[in-house]
TrEMBL record:
Pfam family, one: DSPc
UniProt-recorded name of the protein: Dual specificity protein phosphatase
Positions of region (Disordered): 1-24
Record GO biological process: negative regulation of MAPK cascade
InterPro entries per record: Atypical_DUSP_subfamA, Dual-sp_phosphatase_cat-dom, Prot-tyrosine_phosphatase-like, Tyr_Pase_AS, Tyr_Pase_dom, TYR_PHOSPHATASE_DUAL_dom
Classification lineage: Eukaryota, Metazoa, Chordata, Craniata, Vertebrata
The species this protein was found in: Oryzias latipes
Gene transcribed to yield this protein: DUSP13A
Bias-annotated ranges (Polar residues): 1-23
Amino acid sequence: MSNRKPSMGASTGEGTSCAASSEDTTKVEDKCVEDELVSLQDLEDVLHSGPHSCHHGDEVWPKLYLGDMVMSHDKFSLWQLGITHVLNASHGKLCCRGSDDFYGTTVKYYGVPAHDLPTFDLSPFFYPAAEFIHQGLTSGGKVFVHCAVGVSRSAALVLAYLMIHHHLSLLSSIRCVQPKRWIFPNRGFLRQLLDLDQKLREKKLTVRQ
């Protein structure tokens, strides 16, 4: 972490069990690995059981922050955190001003024009968003992922990233993020993440054969 201190209620995840910035990513993965097949109701029960609190931005994985539109509009706080990449899961919505022009040349921006509706198909954005996050983190940067509230759309994309690039199950991904921030993707997004989970499991089995 930078010596600059975050403002706007941003949480760096220090002292937490699964995404403290001082931990190596491999160690984080080891702590989060579980390999359980679960139903939609199981996932919702787990999500309901989590702490219902969050800041405007929370570090949910080393150098990966999940937050809301308030934090996304505060360029000074993002600079304090050392954010180099912003992924906006509510791109084009009136409540979120994010764009390449808004952040300038010092921050790389990626916008996903998602609606927080169970009928919206977020799955076409799972891999592009995961790749954007992955490139930001592996280049030594810090990534801020947000939507309007930072609970559904952006949370679903962060979960997809953990599943795709860190080979965690959906349940394991939720249990990694949940202690750092309250999340609750809508039912449609959870179904799409379950489909992704199943496809990734099948891919693992094919590779092993």
